[in-house]
Write a structure and sequence with these properties.
The structure is a homodimer. By secondary structure, chain A is of the alpha/beta class. Chain A has three domains: about 80 residues, Orthogonal Bundle (Arc Repressor Mutant, subunit A); about 240 residues, Aspartate Aminotransferase, domain 2 (3-Layer(aba) Sandwich), CATH 3.40.640.10; about 110 residues, Aspartate Aminotransferase, domain 1 (Alpha-Beta Complex), CATH 3.90.1150. The first copy, chain A, is built from 15 helices and 15 strands. In chain A, the strands form three sheets. Chain A has an eight-stranded mixed beta sheet, sandwiched between helices. In chain A, helix 4 crosses helix 12 and helix 14 packs across helix 15. The radius of gyration of chain A is 30 Å and the shape is elongated.
Chain lengths: ~500, ~500
């Protein structure tokens, strides 16, 4: 039998001979070129005829025998009888349409979103000042963590995450946030999105209702939808989440997601009466409150408003925090603080649900907090962001007049500039994007029937030298004819 | 009004005066000690009477006004009327029972599991040799990644993950695994668990059926259950997954999870006829196959069996790989390889579903692969693990006789030692655990009606010096009267 074609050129580069032989034999068998039952030459003979080592042939034969493509017995080696009608590998059938679409629930994760580059542009919300990151002290902590790395750091994380980090974080939250918590209440996660997903899946079942702030944090809605929850939008007013009796009665929640310290994106602070009433009502309704305390580290003045967590004993509140803004988003470390009553179960379920790790980074972060670097960094950034906000407010008043309506900025990295009805926020954002700005329309965080018209202006990455030019471009976008709505 | 108690000792350490004042005022208001409507002294007068700076009082008042606890007008500052019936913060009411249990689906993540320490013990499955990790070259890659770090590495990851890593990985998979893939087909994830979760949620809707191998990988079942899928167990025989007509007709799958190169945990290799038939039937049934190619990097001899992915064109196969065993689990980097037809949509949905990052580590890994360190490391570890397996096989035959039945070991880091019916695998594992071994019972991976009786023996972390003693203890456990089942 003529088998020279088995190693005929062109031979794929960087593939060993034995693999080429194996691949071509297999393809010939699958395509029917070598029919079932065809006897193959003995390995020695084929090796001579192909001018290769006998071992090369043996390897290929052995592999194909293991796979059931060839059979070998006393009569020799031959093509197996396994496929009555050989499947032609070149038959270019398409996949059934049903396979080519993602699941229905995946639609929640397919919302239009700005290009990735937008996150690096002036006014992009949620982007910290990467240049101010304390690379040197952080990397020194990483160095130390690597030096001491053992299986605990290199393997999967234990229940709730690295114990040193949980201890350090409990101390930090007590001192800096006035939360009275211990390490056993903390579960380290790979960021806020993972924390919300855990709450959605470990506290709720499919079809349960979650309340989301309207306008609100878009990524939370994605997490909840993908977890199979029914997302019910509840409007936000000047005092924070404002549920109606109708909301409580007709859409009873199992989960209530809020950003009380600095509502995202409006920047409003939830009033204490509203907080107390919400806790009370949630408890009566057996609903869990998720308090996303994002950006609370960057308070402008005075103490932060008290967290809901710990405001009243035995409150059904889960506190969510992240290091994405205080350090950098790519670190992917955040955390949950849970009431004692469910903390241990939650941590245990998390271990199996998430298979977490990042032990080196967790240990480095514990070190970073314990050495005081974290507090120092927060203090520096607090001053820096506050100065940026003051400068931005002044520049906006210069550009748009003293009566321009600004909200937010008690904490965090962004302001909201409200727009008159005659100017469309979506249109401004589009126009601004064309000029290289990362500003986002308030409307993009809002769902009907609620309406909001304004711009979310991040200043975290707005270096002093860029401010004037960024505001100048923003003014051009706002005043562009394309941004003016037709008379309503 | 007498307000000296506001700053009476004991004062909490390390809390600024203004915060103490604020906290005590707030507690007094919430507890009703200061009734709604009570007028407070002017800030100057209170400052004098408490012997503190006026600003301290002003900060506290301002904060409480912002929270709605106090109101200020021309008449002065007084306690707000917000709570008709003040809630006593000390009322130690318990949370409703409905709040104190995790969701029904969380039960899937509450399976009993070995203590974390077991992962570091001899025979623990899935634990690589941490001591052999190339710390120096890996850390040099991390150093370089840190040196060049910009917003792309420090921020959230773009669609599909770091582009350099996807390129490097595509090249590696082509050369080392014979997969013909490009970077656009790759989605980097934070490990296998995240990859399975993505497949479950982006390819399936709630209530869809997934087939799991029986016995099989326990963590996959957790991921599928938490994603709301119905897990249907399909038995595994000597040729791999062995679905019956009944399985196809009465439990039609949307997803089929398999480990064809080295079935987990039995170590059997799926035959080529079985592979071809499965692809064909899956295509007809509009089912996706997840090919978890774990540990395929550690082949003992010859080329790896061909992956299902790419075996036939337009196959509904998603390929899953991980760096958990080839580098270290805590790194939390794995990947999916998808057919072109859905790769872009899948990557885009992943970005919103997961909020991934670890850009520094991804860039370092790209560098590590490009410089050839990864291939070198794999070659070293392949030889090392192969030697360990040979030594383990010999030691087991010495200890249990030449007829001891071993399976697996074509790839990966573990062998299965089958036990006679008279010895219970669960009992042996329990007894072995008491002697400090990490061996697991095959039965713990198995669900009724399937029965398996054997031990899963990991040798990844079984250093040469430990082998003899580990096998000696194992023999004691196997021969212990406690491991003998009563006559059946």
């Amino acid at each position: 039998m003529e088998l020279d074609w088995l190693l005929a050129p062109p031979l794929p580069e960087s593939m060993p001979r034995q693999r080429v032989l194996y691949h071509r034999l297999r393809e010939a068998i699958l395509s029917g070129r070598l029919a079932p039952g065809t006897p193959l030459p003995a390995s020695r003979r084929l090796a001579v005829s192909l001018k290769i080592a006998r071992n090369t042939v043996l390897f290929a034969y052995e592999q194909l025998i293991a796979e059931g493509c060839l059979v070998a017995d006393r009569q020799g080696t031959r093509v197996a009888q396994f496929v009555a009608q050989p499947i032609a590998p070149s038959s270019n059938r398409d996949m059934p349409t049903a396979l080519l679409r993602l699941s229905n629930r995946a639609a929640a994760a397919m919302q239009p979103e700005p290009a990735r580059e937008a996150a690096a542009r002036p006014f992009a919300p949620g982007t910290p000042d990467y240049g101010a990151f304390p690379f040197r002290s952080w990397r020194a902590c990483l160095e130390r963590a690597w030096r001491d790395a053992g299986w605990r750091q290199l393997g999967y994380a234990g229940h709730g995450g690295d114990s040193a980090l949980r201890e350090a974080l409990a101390g930090h939250l007590t001192t800096a946030r006035g939360l009275s918590v211990d390490a056993g209440q903390i579960v380290i996660t790979s960021g806020t999105q993972a924390a919300l997903d855990l709450c959605a899946r470990l506290l709720c079942d499919h079809g349960d209702t979650v309340w989301a702030e309207n306008p609100g944090y878009l990524a939370a809605r994605v997490a909840f939808s993908l977890a199979g929850l029914r997302v019910h939008d509840v409007p936000v007013d000047g005092e924070g989440l404002a549920p109606s009796e109708d909301d409580w009665n007709r859409h009873p929640p199992r989960l209530i997601m809020i950003t009380p310290s600095h509502q995202y994106p409006t920047g409003r602070v939830m009033s204490l009466p509203r907080r107390l009433a919400l806790i009370e009502r949630a408890r009566q309704s057996s609903a869990w409150i998720i308090e996303d305390d994002y950006d609370s580290e960057f308070r402008r003045t005075g103490p932060a408003p008290p967290a809901l967590f710990g405001l009243l004993p035995d409150s059904p509140v889960v506190y969510v925090g992240t290091f994405s803004k205080t350090l950098y988003p790519g670190l992917r470390l955040g955390y949950l603080v849970l009431p004692h009553a469910i903390a241990a179960d939650f941590a245990r379920a998390t271990t199996q649900a998430m298979r977490f790790g990042q032990g080196i980074e967790q240990r480095a972060l514990a070190d970073f907090i314990q050495r005081g670097h974290y507090t120092t960094h927060l203090r520096r950034m607090r001053a820096r962001y506050a100065a940026r906000q003051v400068a931005l407010r002044a520049a906006l008043k210069d550009a748009f007049g003293p009566s321009v309506e600004l909200s937010g900025g008690e904490a965090g990295l962004h302001l909201v500039m409200w727009l008159p009805e005659s100017i469309g926020d979506t249109e401004v954002a589009k126009c601004a994007a064309e000029m290289g700005l990362g500003v986002r329309a308030l409307g993009s965080y809002t769902r009907a029937p609620m309406t909001c018209n304004g711009l979310v202006l991040g200043y975290g990455n707005l270096a002093e030298g860029m401010l004037a030019e960024a505001v100048r471009r923003l003014a051009v976008a706002v005043r562009s004819p394309a941004s003016h709505r037709r008379e309503v």
